[in-house]
Structures are given as structure tokens and as C-alpha cells.
Amino acid sequence: MNRNEEYRQLLQELDALEAPKDCVARAMRRERRRKYLLRPVISAAAVFVLFVALVNLSSPVAYACSRVPGLRELAQAVTFSRSLTDAVDNDYVQPINLSETNGDITVKVEYLIVDQRSVTVFYRIESECYPHLEVDPIVHSADGTAPAPCSYGPNEWDVPNGELRSLTINFPYQDVPDALQLVFHLYDPNHRQDEAPEPISGSGWADPVYDPEYVADFTFLLEFDPYFTAQGKHFTFDEPLVLGDQTLHITGVDVYPSYLNLTVVGDDNNSAWLRSLKFYLVTNRGERFDMLSNGIVATGSPDTPEMIGYRADSTYFYRAKSITLYAISAEWLDKAHETIHIDLNNAHADTMPQGSSLYSCRREDGRWIVTVLERSDAAQTFMQDYFDAEGNRYEIHSWTSGQYALDGVTAPEGFSYGSIALNDYPYDEVWLTPRYTELWTAERPVSVTLELDQAGNHSK
Amino acid sequence: MNWDEFARRTEAIRSKLYKTAVLYLGDEAAAEEALAEAVYKALHGCKKLRQPEYFDTWITRILLNVCADEHRRKKRLVELDVLPETAAEAFDALPLREAIARLPQELREVVILRYFSGYTLHECAEILHVPQGTVVTRQRRALTLLRLELGEEGRL
Predict the structure, then answer these.
(1) Is the pLDDT of residue A1 over 70?
(2) Which of A119, A264, B31, B91 would staple B21 via disulfide (CB 3.0–4.6 Å)?
(3) pLDDT class of B128 with cuts at 50, 70, 90
């Protein structure tokens, strides 16, 4: 075969290849996640809050809200949350008709779903000039002088102008105040920012900058009906729950209309901190409630690495006399291995979190890139902090995760390669902070029943 | 450029981009990753593209940058030496696909873009940010090394 015949054959081979079809959709999902994670999230407490961002892609609505015609659209806007759907179904809604116009743009805040610990704001944007506008929200105290001690974020993206959209404001560590100031900075996601068609180069480790140009700002004072901000019931317990070698104590259940919070604490004799817990709840009437998968799903202890608060869909409107918790799995952090030593030159770790292994350590452009083979179903293996031999603290600013290692090797099924960059790190050893070290999975769910109206418990 | 337009334009050129990456990296899995990375970078930067008529050459340039980065990474890990232009006999001994992979980068890019991805001389010059005359010179040198008898205007 001569070169030209080889050329024809190679052309045919290339023509027969099918290009991956999902590359645009993947890029859009990644860009949405990046934008979302860069939105302001303010928390007064310096403890870890596990926040999961899922896109509410407006799932089909089977629910028919016929009693209050005005709430039909609201019912469609809350399909991402079983608890909020139950709230709307029970007419648990505070109408609030606020409207502000700035030039061609009008923003209307129409409904609130408020309880002791959270506020969901339903609003719409109208404009003739802009086909689509997005919002950067900021939540202040009522007088506008200070950030409110809360975290918040939108519940969906890419909602067309004119349609109802929502954001949820969470107060994990204190009650919702009587009023809040909500500022909307609006921007056009399709706005072309400059003239130059610059190609993007580089290895992709740099963090992109998020700085939209705002086209208008709107400020609303949200005043909450005291009836709604009083809604929430607190039950106290000391129920032990034995998960393998470790013991938890269930110390409280908070039932709000918008979510249920389970509070646990590890036994003093445990050799490990609880880092995550998976469970579901079943009421005395057999209704099942799952853990939240969107927004704040867990909260940490201010004193230890332990994750002590776990959120599930709310039983508030079901008036359950008891709930049974079924624990399915847990992740633990060995108290003796809160950091893991890695010899970067020899790519050797003294120990690694269960289910993961150190794949490589590479020196590249003044930084180390540490690659780990990790479980696909787990969040990242290492936390943001790392330390040198003298105990100086550094922060990981970028990481990647994918099916392929940097050398092209494909991860086994159920695993992926995660790479973290230790920028400007000159040393040849490092102490990384594992998110967990051990996994526990129940052969059969471990259960405990919690009486919600027994003597000794109290409700607010 | 908004996301709908971006999706439409990328979809139209997706197959061409993928072939470019496969030939550049010699590996379909790596090409998939490179395509995904390039599309993400393009999406992230598409607001900067004021003249949509340059979309195809612009996104191809991004893909070439991603492929070049990946190629450099691979070279550090495995023996993937680029042959000098004086090593004509060594090029002869290699299968065409591998010979292309061993070309110096500036020749490899021109060959892939012109004879496999189907870009015109003018488009190649835009993608590579060089004058058309430079593209012509590079493609002649590359064709000579590969002993391919192809016209200057493109495929057979």
C-alpha cells in the first residue's frame, strides 16, 4: 500500500468514527455548576455546610392545584422539592405582592414560603429588551447595613423571563428574622463582553473569573408573617444507633414545613468522626421520606470535623406520631488520621481513604499534581486544606475529576480519577486532609424508632 | 453569542473537531476528553466572540491548544518523540497515522487541518494565526516528509 492509498484508508477510518454527542450538554452542565458555585453564599458560622447544587429542569407536573387558581403556577415552581410541594398543597404560602420597575425591566416578588429556618422567595422578571436575564441575589439585614447570617441560592437556572422562579434562603444556625432586605443584581447571560475573539489556551488549571456586568439592581424589603416564622417543632432524644464499630446518638429532630433536620452526635468512645450518613425515614403510617439532594443537605459541628445535621423531606404536614430511621451507609474519618502524609517524589501515601488509591504525583510548572483513583459515587476524596512539614496551611484552589487519568488510562467501572493541584508548592512531601477514611454499609438497614409525641420531648 | 447559538454552531462542527483531535492525539479516548474540554472552554469564552463568522476557526484553535497541551503531557510520560525534518527515512518507515503524529507541531497541525479536517488555506491561516504563504510552505514541507502526493488545494 503506497502513501496515497494509506491516506484514503485513513480518511475512511476517520469518516467512520462517531463523535461523542453529549459534549455540548456536558459543557453547559459544567459551566452552570461553575457559575453556581461562585455565587455568594454567606454564613455567619465558620462550620462546614454540605451544599449540593442540582439543576431543577422543570420536571413534568402531575400535580393539579385546583383550589386556589393563583397557586397553580406556584405548584409548578416547587416540583423540585417534596416538602415545598406539600406546603403549597396545604396552602402554606404567604402572598407578598411587591413590584419594582427600572427602565424596561420589572421584577415582581409574589409569594414566600417561610418557616423558622428558611425562606423560599418566588419572583418573576419581565422585560421587552432582554429576552433572558439572570440574577445575582444578595441578602441583607432589614436595614440593609449588614449581610444576613444565612446562605442562599437559586433553585433553577435558565428560566425564561415572565415565568415564576425561586431562590431559597437558609438560616442553619438561627431563626428567620422578622424581615430581610433582598437585592437582585440582574445581568444578561448572553451579553458579549468585549471585542476580541481570543482563543483560550493553557492547561485548564486556572480558576475562571466570574464577573457579569449588571444591567439593573432591585431592592425589596421582605416582611414575614409571624405565623409562618413560628412554624417548626423540635424534639429531643438520646437514642443510640450502632453502625458497625461506631455509635451515634440521635439527639434531636426538627420538623419545619420546608425540611426535616436530624441532629446526631458521635459517642465519646468512637475512634472516628462521622462525615456522612445516608438514611431514610418512615412514619408510623408507612409514608417514606428521603434525604434532601439539593441545597443544604448536611451541616457540620463548630468544634469537631463531625457532620452532625442531616436534612430530609419534611413530615410536617403528615402529623406523624413516630418516625423510624433506617441507616443505610456512613463515611467515617479516623481520629488518628485527620491528615494523610504523602511522599510526593515516590508517589507513596502512608494510608489512603478506603476505596481510593494514590495514582500519581507529578511535578509540573512549579506545582505538584496529585491524582487519586476514587469512588465515582463519593464527593471529592480530600478537603481543601493541606499542610507542609512545619504545619503551615495551604488551600487547594483547583481540582479536576474524570474518567481518564492524565496519561490516558481509563478508570475501572465505578471509579474516576481526581487530580488536585498544589500550586507553588516546593516541598516533596505533603499532608492532605481526607474527607473520610472508612466506609460503613449496612447489609440490612439499621433502624431506630423516634416517638414524636412522647413525654420528655418538647415542641416549640 | 448565546448558548442556543453556541450549541447549534458546535453541533455543526462537532464531527470535524473530533476527527481533528483523534488524528492529533492518535487516541479516541483522549480525543473525546480533548473535545469535551475544548467545548467547555469555548462555551466559557463564547461571550468574547464578537464576530460569529469566526466561530469555526476560533473553536478549532481552542481545540488545537487543548490537544497541544495533552500532547505535551503525553510526551513526558511515554516515548513520543517528534522526528526532525532531516529524518525522511524514519518517516517512510512509519504508518501514515504515526508519521503524522511524529511531525513537528507546526507541520502536523497544517496537515491535519488541510487534508483531514477539510479547512481551506484561508481558514488554516486564521486558525494558526499565520499568513497563508506560511501555511502553503508548511504543507509542502509536511507532504514531502510524508511522501504524500496531494494537491495544494486539499484532498485527493
Answers:
(1) no
(2) B31
(3) confident
pLDDT at B75 exceeding the cut of 90: no
Residue in B with minimal Cα distance to A402: B33
Q: Given an 8 Å threshold on Cβ–Cβ distance, is A199 in contact with B65? A: yes
Give the helix/strand (H/E) hosting B121.
helix B121-128
Give the Cα separation of B81 and B79 in Å (integer).
6
CA atoms lying within 13 Å on the CB side of residue A359 = 25
What residue type is B122 in one-letter code? Answer: H
| Chain B (28-87) residues lying within 8 Å, Cβ to Cβ, of chain A | 28-30, 32-33, 35-37, 39-45, 47-51, 54, 58, 61-62, 65-66, 69, 73-74, 76-78
Q: How confident is the model at residue A35 (pLDDT cuts 50, 70, 90)?
A: low
Residue of chain B whose Cα is closest to the Cα of A194: B48
Q: How far is CA A326 from the centre of its chain?
A: 23
> Tell me, what DSSP letter sits at residue B153?
T
Inform me whether the C-beta atom of residue B144 falls under 8 Å from chain A C-beta atoms. no
CB-CB: which of A20, A21, A406 is closest to B73?
Answer: A406
Q: How far apart are CA A13 and CA B100, in angstroms?
A: 15
The alpha-carbon gap from A134 to the nearest alpha carbon of chain B, in Å, equals 13
Quote the DSSP letter at residue B104: -
Please give the Cα distance from A329 to A445 (Å, whole number): 8
Contact: B65, A200; criterion CB under 8 Å: yes
Instruction: Give, as one character, the DSSP assignment of residue B46.
Output: G
Are A109 and A122 spatial neighbours (Cβ–Cβ below 8 Å)?
Answer: yes
Alpha-carbon separation of residue A225 from A142, A178, A258, B14 (angstroms):
14, 8, 16, 54
Q: Which of B40, B48, B61 sits opposite A193 (nearest CB)?
A: B48
* Most confident residue range from A232-241, A399-408, B110-119: A232-241
- Where residue A286 falls (left for φ over 0; alpha for ψ -120 to 50; beta otherwise) is left
Q: How far apart are the CA of B133 and the nearest CA of chain A, in angstroms?
A: 22
Residue-wise pLDDT for A335-368, tens only, equals 999 999 999 999 999 899 999 999 999 988 788 9
Helix (H) / strand (E) containing B113: none
Chain B positions in Cβ-Cβ contact with residue A202 (cut-off 8 Å): 65, 69
**Substitution target from B1, B3, B89 for chain A, most A beta carbons within 10 A:** B3
Query: Is B148's CB within 8 Å of A3's CB?
Result: yes
d(CA A346, CA B152): 51
Place of cell 512545619: A390
